[in-house]
Amino acid sequence: xxxxxxxxxxxxxxxxxxxxxxxxxxxxxxxxxxxxxxxxxxxxxxxxxxxxxxxxxxxxxxxxxxxxxxxxxxxxxxxxxxxxxxxxxxxxxxxxxxxxxxxxxxxxxxxxxxxxxxxxxxxxxxxxxxxxxxxxxxxxxxxxxxxxxxxxxxxxxxxxxxxxxxxxxxxxxxxxxxxxxxxxxxxxxxxxxxxxxxxxxxxxxxxxxxxxxxxxxxxxxxxxxxxxxxxxxxxxxxxxxxxxxxxxxxxxxxxxxxxxxxxxxxxxxxxxxxxxxxxxxxxxxxxxxxxxxxxxxxxxxxxxxxxxxxxxxxxxxxxxxxxxxxxxxxxxxxxxxxxxxxxxxxxxxxx
Length: 351
What we know:
Strand order of the largest sheet: 5-6-7-3-8-9
Radius of gyration: 23 Å
Strand content: 25-35%
Largest sheet: 6 strands, mixed
Number of helices: 13
Number of strands: 13
Structural class: alpha/beta
Number of domains: 2
CATH superfamily of the largest domain: P-loop containing nucleotide triphosphate hydrolases
Order of helices and strands: EEEHEHEHHHEHEHEEHEEEHEHHHH
Helix content: 25-40%
Distance between the termini: 31 Å
Mean pLDDT: 83
CATH topology of the largest domain: Rossmann fold
């Protein structure tokens, strides 16, 4: 399968803060790839490198076969970007904004555009200055999902949406994926990623610490077992592969390494099992495994500034286009579009 995004050893520093610290990432064609991490882990900095908005200090990156920095204008016609904090041209209506962004992205499917406007409950005749945060987000999503983009880069795309619209977004994204569109979904909403994504990468302190198919990652972690027994529970404290053991009368709860499930279940069965529940690891379990620091490291972790926070605080020489059109910044300039007021991103050294 072709690789749409390939990054190796990416490094980006802002002052004394290293936002990306040797980051590796690969996204295959046609997949929805979840990019997970809390605020400050390096997710947004990664996306801005992929968009050509900032230049990495080290490492190698390819996007749709091109260089995001040198080939930005051509690449932006093949991708669509949605940020979690959308700003629009205040004097344009929602419909005018959708159509403008569609032209910059290489074309718009008019039928799909009209369908998505209805599905998201958006009034396209209103000017952007009258939109709520959620409606600004809908404009960006309709524009991206109705474009002919080969790649969608989504950074916390459901910010500001109500639960019903979040469900609609998931349906729409799954439809585009079935059509062969590649998606990189950056999020800290674990349920959203678990529902949508084929593969996930977990980023911590500017590095990808785990990456793979969810099913494969689950096999590498522990299963939670709860058993109600007929007899006093066996002494499992010294049993290899047993973790977080708790006993409350005849009830036993533990976490078991998958490689040791057989012997552990046999020990429980010998005590007579009245009821047993085995819960495979969730995405939250996988995530928290990398974000539960030991007690002696907690203080140091709390003192360290978040990578993306430092990136966002880095100075910029000028104001650029709004967040939702950041990926089309160069294309907009080449097309002669007037820059909007109050933009948030630029091609300067800013994240």
